[in-house]
Structure formats: C-alpha cells, structure tokens
Design brief:
The protein has 379 residues and is mainly alpha-helical. The chain contains 14 helices and no strands.
C-alpha cells in the first residue's frame, strides 16, 4: 500500500470514528469525543471491514496520530500551569502536597487489589488505576506495553463513577452549606481572543512544546510528546510570567481539544482485538468496587483537609476527586466555588502522574518479570 493510500485510509478511519465521538459529545460529557471515537474505532477494529484493512490483513492506523493527539493534549495541560497556580500552592503547599500523594497512593492500592483479585497483569492493573485521566493513561498504556482495552475500561469506569457521584454529593452539600460558597471571577478555562499578540504567544508555546518534545524523545522519556510538550509550555509560561509579572493568554480554540480526543480515541481503538477482552468479567467487578472505595476514601480525606485548612468542603472534594479536570472545574463554576484552585490541584496531580508513574510502572514490570523468570528457572 502506498504512502498516499495509507494516509487516506487513516484519515477515513479517523473521520468515521470521530462521528461516534460527535454523537456522544451531544450528551454534554466533556470527554464524549474521546469515548465515542474510541468505542467506534474499537467496533471497526473488531469487525475488520475491508475498507480499512491494509497489507497483511491489519487495520491499526499509524502511530503518528497518537503522538499528535498527545502533543496537542500536552500543550493544553501546560497552559493551565501559570503564576496563579504557583501562588495557590505557595499558600497551601503542605496539605495539598499531602493530599496529592495520598490520592496517588490510594490509586496504587486500588491497582494492587485489581492485580490480585483479577486475571489482569500487574502493569495493566497499576496503569489502569493511576489517577491520570482517560485522556492520557490509555496512550501511556500503549507505549509501556499494558493492555489498552483493560486500562481504557478501568479508567472509563472510574471517570463515570466520579462524574455520576461527586457532582450530586457536592450539590447536596451545597444545599446544606450554601453560605460557604466562594464567588469566583470568570471561568477556569479562559482562552484569548483571535488577536495578533495572542496568536504570536500561541506560536511561541507550540515551538517550545516541539523543542521540549524532541528533547524528551532523545532522553527516552515515557510518552515524550505528551510530557515534553506539557513541560515545555509550562516552563515558558511560568518563566515569562515570573519575568513580566503577569500571565500571557494564548489563542487556543476548543476545537484543538476535540482534535486531540479524536486522534487519541481513534488510534487506541484501532489497536483493539478480541483477545484483549478475554476474562474481563471479574476485572469489571473488581474495578467497580475498587473505584467506589477510592472515591469514598477521597471524599472523607478531602473533608478532613477542608477542616484543617479552612478551604471550602465542596472545593476540597472537587479538587482532589480522581475525575476529569473539565468535569470538576465545571461543577465548581456552577456552584460558585473556587474553580481556579480546583483546576490547579487537578492539573498538578495529572502532571505528577504522567511524569513520575510511567518509569515506576516500567520498573515494577521489570522486577515482576525477573521474579517470574527466576521462579520458572528454579522449578
């Protein structure tokens, strides 16, 4: 198959898969584009229609689309790191740091339970339960060699449980403690207007993201186009903000986030096969129970942190819940809570998870494989 026809096949597959994302996005779920695209792409991959097949009866699309989706996602996440975020953490660094590490440890314990009580391998269990979000973890799972189907399933279950329980919980608390609401100005997700200074700043951020991503590739970082672009944008924004005393606002259309979700969902879905879903019944049950326990523990510990720091209980729960950034921030804005604090905590945890956990996962996987090899040799 020629390069041109290969590109046309990829684009056709992405467009058709993206239609499923569009339909699910009509429900109002912020990650609907990715979930819908992924489900549609997985359905096509499992059915294997001749329209999308390549030489050797394969269907998987080129990995460049995953890298492009991660690159766009990294730029968007990096933009949320600015001087305002640093000021927030300078004020509450100790309780916030403790809670972030505690939530990550809880997620790792959830992964340990999933590994021991199901047929899922160790690497897949820990990647699947890591609080990195549905947008990032399936892509990382594909790069480190975990089962992307299981990781996607576990992450989806937890996100849906958080989205379906946390907003109702905080709405109930808000009716009981309406006087505790903290008014905030504007939205947590502001984007600059289409002006020359904003466009110029956007170009500078993209250039910084590209250079840092290339460096991350050379240094053999896990998910280098995600981590590199995120760190490059964050470093430039914080550095320039510190020198000038104010944050620059880039022009970043919402369509970029949609494109990222479509690219990620289509690439991950195209790699699905029937063998990935064998024996998932027990995994599904354990994932639901462990996710419920993680959410309950997070709510209780968030209430304790709120009492210690004086932060609103609702703000604390939304900030530390293992859900999506957009969902929690939107709920905070709706309830007139501190959406900036919520976004700051959610983004920092996501950065910690994406930057720190993949090397840890690989180390655990290496140790586990070595033990398995030594055990078989001893027998």
């Amino acid at each position: 198959m020629t390069q041109g026809s290969s590109l046309r096949t990829d684009l056709t597959f992405i467009v058709v898969s993206g239609l499923g994302g569009f339909l699910l996005s009509l429900t109002g779920i912020s990650i609907g584009w990715m979930i819908g695209t992924l489900i549609t792409a997985a359905f096509i991959a499992l059915r294997r229609p001749s329209l999308f097949q390549r030489k050797g009866n394969t269907l998987r699309i080129h990995g460049r689309w995953l890298l492009l989706g991660q690159f766009i996602l990294g730029i968007e996440l990096g933009q949320k790191m600015n001087m305002n975020v640093l000021h927030i953490f300078a004020k509450n660094w100790l309780p916030v740091s403790f809670m972030l590490m505690f939530s990550i440890i809880l997620a790792m314990l959830s992964g340990f339970v999933l590994w021991k009580l199901s047929k899922t391998d160790m690497l897949t269990s820990f990647v699947g339960t890591a609080p990195g979000g549905l947008s990032a973890m399936p892509g990382i799972a594909q790069e480190v060699g975990a089962n992307t189907a299981v990781v996607t399933l576990v992450q989806t279950i937890r996100v849906l449980m958080v989205v379906l329980t946390i907003p109702f919980t905080v709405f109930y608390l808000n009716t009981k403690n309406s006087s505790d609401a903290v008014l905030t100005e504007g939205s947590a997700f502001s984007s600059g207007f289409f002006t020359m200074p904003n466009i110029t700043w956007t170009a500078a951020l993209i250039l910084a993201a590209w250079f840092m991503s290339r460096l991350a590739v050379r240094l053999h970082f896990p998910a280098p186009w995600l981590i590199g672009s995120m760190l490059g944008v964050a470093a430039l924004q914080i550095g320039v903000g510190a020198m000038t005393g104010h944050d620059f606002i880039p022009y970043w259309p919402s369509q970029a986030n949609i494109a990222s979700q479509i690219f990620l969902g289509a690439t991950i879905g195209s790699n699905m096969n029937k063998q990935m879903f064998v024996g998932l019944k027990n995994t599904l049950i354990v994932a639901i129970v462990s996710s419920a326990g993680l959410i309950a523990a997070t709510i209780l510990s968030s209430i304790v942190i709120a009492k210690i720091t004086g932060i609103s209980v609702i703000t604390s729960i939304l900030a530390f819940s293992p859900g999506g950034i957009a969902e929690m921030a939107t709920t905070a804005v709706t309830l007139q809570e501190d959406s900036t604090f919520v976004v700051a905590v959610q983004v920092v945890r996501l950065i910690l998870v994406i930057a720190m956990l993949p090397p840890f996962f690989r180390f655990l996987h290496h140790v586990w494989l070595k033990k398995q090899t030594d055990y078989k040799a001893a027998k």
